[in-house]
Amino acid sequence: xxxxxxxxxxxxxxxxxxxxxxxxxxxxxxxxxxxxxxxxxxxxxxxxxxxxxxxxxxxxxxxxxxxxxxxxxxxxxxxxxxxxxxxxxxxxxxxxxxxxxxxxxxxxxxxxxxxxxxxxxxxxxxxxxxxxxxxxxxxxxxxxxxxxxxxxxxxxxxxxxxxxxxxxxxxxxxxxxxxxxxxxxxxxxxxxxxxxxxxxxxxxxxxxxxxxxxxxxxxxxxxxxxxxxxxxxxxxxxxxxxxxxxxxxx
Length: 250
Prior knowledge:
The chain is an all-beta fold. 0% of the residues lie in helices and 48% in strands. The strands form four sheets. The protein has an eight-stranded antiparallel sheet with strand order 1-2-5-6-10-9-8-7, with no helix packed on it. It has a seven-stranded antiparallel sheet with strand order 13-16-17-21-20-19-18, with no helix packed on it. A hairpin with a 2-residue loop joins strand 14 and strand 15. The mean pLDDT is 94.
């Protein structure tokens, strides 16, 4: 089966075995899933409707049509466990391949697996790459005119579609200016992140610093290093101030 691409939507088959659990039961177990890019940022899984092992009950709600067609919502029922509105079908989709497929809401399910490995947040994009390189470049981070970090031992992280990130040893950061935040986030490529807020002269800069203390195996080189949002602070690389990038995190 080939890649299906329209002006707005890309549909790609995958050879991976994908399993999804709800209520401790298999909701689907297939080697015939599709990756569908509903927006440019990352894909989501769609499954053949006849391979679902759970019951779908129409919700009867009305949803606004989009480039995929008119979404029809369903409750997902697994032996008494109900995930309300957690399935969507596009029975009238202008993309014929989607008409027989079902999308399960990622967060509403209990667990997702590609082969025997769990996945988190959303499926990994096969066209998305993360490169982490050790460097000796001089990185200096400034907030409100004050240097809050300076290092000659950064890890440079290059990720498709995002600005380069500079991960710095904690010993090169003014930890006295940082306050732990309750914010957490999850990246399917790097893992679970914790955040700090910076406080300078009673001014608070929330969640501008983060760390992956135990990143996924492919991102181990940034374990214990912290990074600042280029979009929200001033970063000098080898003495040159970088322009603040425009990104989804701006």
